[in-house]
Amino acid sequence: TLPPLGIVIVLSRFTRLMEKELAAVIELFRPLTVVVILIASVLAGLGEEALFRGVMQDALAGWAGTAVAVVIVSILFGLIHFISLHYVIYVFALGIYLGGIYAYTDNLVVPATIHFLYDFLAILYGVHFLGVDSDDDPKHDPV
Question: What pLDDT digit, counting tens, does each position of 13-48 carry?
Fold first, then answer.
């Protein structure tokens, strides 16, 4: 979970490459409680990994080989997470990472756990650090 989380933090905060794009999405999560974000992250991690790795990657691997399956499924994984071209490329790379881990371990629980933890921690990070202008944030109000 830490490698992709670290990459998205660096990309979003230090390069400003995706900060505005991600901040717009994070605004959808800002009103939610930590428990709701946790439940959504678990469901997304389990559901997406079951579909992309458990169904699609397995089916394509039997037909075209593991490496081709990981690449094709990762392209689709990136495209369904379209926020911007930058983010599609990042999610494609994340798909390669998750697909490779699944191919190596042959255990869907491993990428599903990484995925859910990544989503949960990335959303919490985003809610607390992205798209919040210190002038507009009551926590930073000097009065």
Answer: 656 666 777 777 888 899 999 999 999 999 999 999
Task: Tell me the CA distances in angstroms from 31 to 96, 118, 124, one per residue in order.
Answer: 32, 20, 12
Tokens at residue 38, please?
């946790």
CB neighbours of 88 closer than 8 A, spacing ≥ 6? 78, 79, 81, 82
pTM for the model stands at 0.81
Chain position carrying tokens 């399956």: 69
Q: Is residue 3 exposed (0-12), middle (13-18) or buried (19+ Cβ within 10 Å)?
A: exposed
Report d(CA 123, CA 29) in Å as an integer. Answer: 7
The residues, ordered by sequence, that sit 6+ positions from 100 with a Cβ below 8 Å of its Cβ are 70
Q: 88: burial class by Cβ within 10 Å (0-12, 13-18, 19+)?
A: middle
Distance separating alpha carbons of residues 20 and 39, to the nearest angstrom = 25
